[in-house]
């Protein structure tokens, strides 16, 4: 159950807003792809994929090998923290994704 504030329809109200021009769309497939660099002030990214995939969060070198990565099932919308302070976020600039199927991963920066 969400601990976020709720609107009049009893739906959670997102605490973080979406960054203007902070959305990315990645073509997912059998070859790993990496997002564009994520803004240093971004605290959370929201991910949604239309296919089952694996993703990794990290700097340029960390996302090169995503064989032991996090699973994201198709159709699930999740928020992923990039760290609680600027020092921690310096090492988390990219999202890499790979899938056995072809589809699309949608990424939104949250501030």
Summarize the SSE layout with pairings.
Blueprint (H helix, E strand, L loop, with lengths): L17 E11 L4 E2 L9 E6 L3 E6 L11 E3 L4 E5 L4 H4 L4 E5 L4 E8 L1
Antiparallel strand pairs: 1-8, 2-7, 3-6, 3-8, 4-5, 4-7
Can you summarize this structure?
By secondary structure, the chain is mostly beta strands. The protein has one helix spanning 86-89; strands spanning 18-28, 33-34, 44-49, 53-58, 70-72, 77-81, 94-98, 103-110. It has one helix and eight strands; from the N terminus they run E-E-E-E-E-E-H-E-E.
General description of the model:
The protein is mainly beta. 4% of the residues lie in helices and 41% in strands. The chain has one helix spanning 86-89; strands at 18-28, 33-34, 44-49, 53-58, 70-72, 77-81, 94-98, 103-110. The strands form 2 sheets. A 4-stranded antiparallel sheet has the order 1-8-3-6, with no helix packed on it. A 4-stranded antiparallel sheet has the order 2-7-4-5, with no helix packed on it.
């Amino acid at each position: 159950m969400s601990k976020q504030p709720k609107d009049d329809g009893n739906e959670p109200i997102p605490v973080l807003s979406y960054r203007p021009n902070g959305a990315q769309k990645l073509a997912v497939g059998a070859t790993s792809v990496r997002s564009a660099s994520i803004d240093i002030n971004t605290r959370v990214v929201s991910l949604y994929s239309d296919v089952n995939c694996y993703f990794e969060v990290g700097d340029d070198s960390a996302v090169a090998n995503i064989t032991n990565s996090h699973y994201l099932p198709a159709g699930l919308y999740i928020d992923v923290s990039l760290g609680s302070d600027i020092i921690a976020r310096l090492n988390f600039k990219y999202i890499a994704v790979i899938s056995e199927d072809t589809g699309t991963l949608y990424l939104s920066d949250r501030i």
